[in-house]
Amino acid sequence: MTELVRVLRGLRRLTDDPRDAFAHRLRIGLAIAALILILSFLR
Q1: CA pair distance 30, 34, nearest whole angstrom
Q2: DSSP 8-state code for residue 12
Q3: Domain housing 15
Q4: Which ranges does the record mark as transmembrane (predicted)?
């Protein structure tokens, strides 16, 4: 569990630029959606 928390903290992006923060969140969201899609195909 601590490894998961460490990885999630590494994904955080601390920036003052809202455009950069939005783009980062969008990339992370798309990566998670792709992972869920791949896992659903495997079942």
Answers
A1: 6
A2: -
A3: 1-42
A4: 22-42
Q: So what's the pLDDT on residue 39?
A: 95
Q: Tens digit of pLDDT for each residue in 1-43?
A: 788 888 777 777 677 788 988 888 899 899 999 999 999 999 8
Total of domains in the chain: 1
Closest CA to 25 of 7, 11, 43: 11
- Decide: residue 36, CB within 10 A, 0-12 exposed, 13-18 middle, 19+ buried: exposed
